Amino acid sequence: MLTGLSIIVPPLTGIVLVDFYYLWNKQYPDHIENLSFKTVNPYAILAWLAGIGVALAIDIGFASLNAMLGAALLYALIMKASHLKMLNSGDEHLVTHQKTQEA
């Protein structure tokens, strides 16, 4: 059970770290309570599963570290590529801003 958890959990850590430090540049927007996030990010799920696959496929080093690095790398690449694609089409990537005007 511990071996399974050591392969399943670390990719989530890699995804969270990449999301905060790389995609959001260590700073969330000021009014995060006014943002509406998508419920599920399929790219994060794909990167998580790929991280598990990396841990199972590579026998060199620590499986948990391989899983975290594999998921983080893939997530960063997918998110940057999809962000540019969605910006070109006029859509926003993960967040839809709900601008409220205060009178």
How would you characterize the overall build of this protein?
The structure is a single chain. The chain has 103 residues and is mainly α. It is built from four helices and two strands, in the order ααβααβ. The protein has helices spanning 2-8, 10-23, 42-57, 63-88; strands spanning 35-37, 95-97. It has a two-stranded antiparallel sheet.
Fraction of residues in H or I helices = 55-70%
Strand order of the largest sheet: 1-2
Structural class: mainly alpha
Biggest sheet overview: 2 strands, antiparallel
Q: What is the averaged pLDDT score?
A: 80
Give the overall silhouette: elongated
Please tally the helical runs, counting DSSP H or I stretches of 4 or more residues.
4
| Number of strand elements | 2
Measure the end-to-end span.
56 Å
* Multimerization state: single chain
* Share in β-strands: 5-15%
The string of secondary-structure elements, in order, is HHEHHE
The gyration radius over C-alpha positions equals: 16 Å
The low-pLDDT segments are 86-91, 93-103
